[in-house]
Design brief:
Pfam families: TRM. It contains seven helices and eight strands. It is an alpha/beta fold and about 200 residues long.
Length: about 200
């Protein structure tokens, strides 16, 4: 979906912690054991204690495909800038770097507990390009905050990825504001089944 940068989305509504944090509910059976090593479309990574569903691979495939096609449509010399606002274990970030040809990806997850895992996974890709430009950065902020801070600095992205746990409604305003004019906004919900009333035991 193409999105034009919007101008006024303030004040920023607070978002419930469970919508932007990937830490598992202790009463819920984890999809994979902690620190499980995984391979998705030939990209190796670890899940650690972050929430991860292998069933969502198709959604990640479509994101990578969309980013790849958009990268090919950019002007020559204009690199693809991506922000993964809720990166979890960072598999999306890794795939944007390795498979979509992204020149820069901002990986953000609200949980600082995920930092060692994210850094370990992203260390599989160079942090700095041969030309000296950063390839990726990691932050731990509320998704709305990291999007708003980039918007205020006028640092826009060609591809904005928001994969929330449940509804995306509280993130839409800042997500749209952070997309570069002519860029793409990719919205998914990893656990949409639960927010839709299915799998109540989750």
């Amino acid at each position: 979906m193409a999105a034009v940068v919007a101008a006024h989305f303030f004040p920023i509504p607070p978002s419930p912690p469970f919508l932007h944090t990937r830490i598992r509910n202790p009463t819920r059976r984890p999809p994979f054991p902690a620190n499980a090593s995984q391979t998705e479309r030939d990209v190796e990574f670890e899940t650690g204690n972050s929430f991860f569903l292998s069933e969502s691979a198709l959604g990640r495939d479509l994101g990578v495909l969309s980013a790849t096609l958009h990268q090919q449509s950019l002007y020559s010399g204009s690199g693809l800038r991506v922000i993964d606002a809720m990166c979890g274990c960072s598999i999306r970030t890794l795939r944007y770097l390795a498979q979509a040809g992204a020149d820069f990806v901002w990986a953000n997850d609200a949980s600082e507990d995920c930092r060692p895992l994210i850094l370990s996974n992203l260390s599989r890709h160079p942090r700095v390009s041969p030309g000296g430009d950063r390839c990726w950065v990691v932050s731990h902020l509320d998704a709305n905050r990291v999007l708003a801070e980039n918007y205020l600095r006028r640092e826009f992205f060609d591809f904005v990825d928001v994969d929330s746990f449940g509804s995306n409604s509280s993130f839409m305003g800042m997500a749209v504001a952070t997309v570069r004019k002519g860029g793409l906004l990719y919205i998914t919900s990893t656990d949409g089944h639960s927010s839709g009333g299915h799998r109540p035991h989750w």
